[in-house]
């Protein structure tokens, strides 16, 4: 009987002892509770940047890294055309500006360390006669998985798409085209493959010959590419590059609409499968107002709508604020005056919260460069610094931009090309803008516009935390 009682109570005791032992081991090995919430993403200086200047033959190329970066490692900037290195730069704050030889093709600018934070590059080609007469300029862009371009279609211009795969992996590229009649369906699907380092041009008339206006999305999966489009207008009406447009959003700001005479045509596109109404407001130096008879624009699903603003903004420099319930992309075509007018393009852009740099500007000798800055919501305040190609760097100057206004600022005359750095000051509201460069020719005004893009100064790095997701599928 005694043995039965011992067995009866001994088993629970052993189980309890085992549980206590397991609890003790778990308590001893349990990580200490976190003293504070896990950190958020860290802002770190950009360590490497690659940009591509498309079809640079005969174009003047500007490359600059603004001074005062916070890179923790020394670095350099390499300017190359294919396998040929054109130059290697090691001095931030000094503009490199040269004319690319004929037959160059795309120029790739690669920067690391101290050469990367804020790196900008741009190209401008000037022709005074022939079908390509005018100024054609563009910001050199970095590889992306998706790029939007808005402008004239192949029925109004010769539009050539320039693609470059600057990465070390191949890329599969899909080209989607939206017109005034809806999305264009092509027999080939607009799909092609680019090997690492490969560049290719695509005549968009081969994919969509009939659109007068269009929005183009270049998207990749897998891989990334740079995409730029050059439009040569029919009947000798000028030439220029289409700037990259901000991705689809329900609020789009189109900055840097140049003042003066000539036609101003707004293009609004939606990739959605539902119609949308877009409210349009214009910002000018005198204030903001709804465009009479043009304050609402109906954009059919998957298509592009056009609005003639030639009389609506009265020849003033302007910016446009577009709002809708459905995401949209937008651009504007500005045609100059004279016997042989030139054309320029601007597009939806982001605010310059981190500052912005334009790497190619000229003034004097019939040439003018000016900034058009807009503060749609609250007053803005920025500093502007000129970075010359040679000589002493002048002191920066400050500018105030009134709320719901556009401010036009002529850049000072300089001996040769220069870059310009625009930085928002503490307390400034969101500022949008662009640089307009023009040149007086005998038979008309040549012009080009570059919307201000956010400087490549910082990258957001997510925090590193312990997580079972590292080892579990």
Give the biggest sheet: 8 strands, antiparallel
Oligomer class: single chain
Number of helices: 1
> Considering DSSP H and I runs of 4 or more, what fraction of the residues is helical?
under 10%
Summarize the structure.
The longest helix is centred in the N-terminal third of the chain and has 28 residues. With 473 residues, this protein is mostly beta strands. It is built from one helix and 36 strands.
Tag the structure with descriptive keywords.
single chain, 473 residues, mainly beta, 6% helix, globular, 6-stranded antiparallel β-sheet
Secondary structure topology:
Layout (H helix, E strand, L loop, with lengths): L1 H28 L12 E4 L2 E6 L6 E5 L12 E5 L2 E6 L6 E4 L7 E6 L7 E8 L6 E6 L6 E7 L4 E8 L6 E9 L2 E3 L6 E4 L4 E5 L9 E8 L5 E8 L5 E4 L1 E2 L3 E9 L6 E6 L6 E9 L2 E4 L5 E4 L4 E5 L9 E18 L7 E5 L8 E6 L5 E9 L4 E9 L8 E5 L3 E6 L7 E7 L7 E10 L2 E8 L6 E4 L12
Antiparallel strand pairs: 1-36, 2-7, 3-6, 3-8, 4-5, 4-7, 8-9, 10-16, 10-19, 11-15, 11-17, 12-13, 12-14, 12-16, 17-18, 20-26, 21-25, 21-26, 22-23, 22-24, 22-26, 26-27, 28-33, 29-32, 29-34, 30-31, 30-33, 34-35
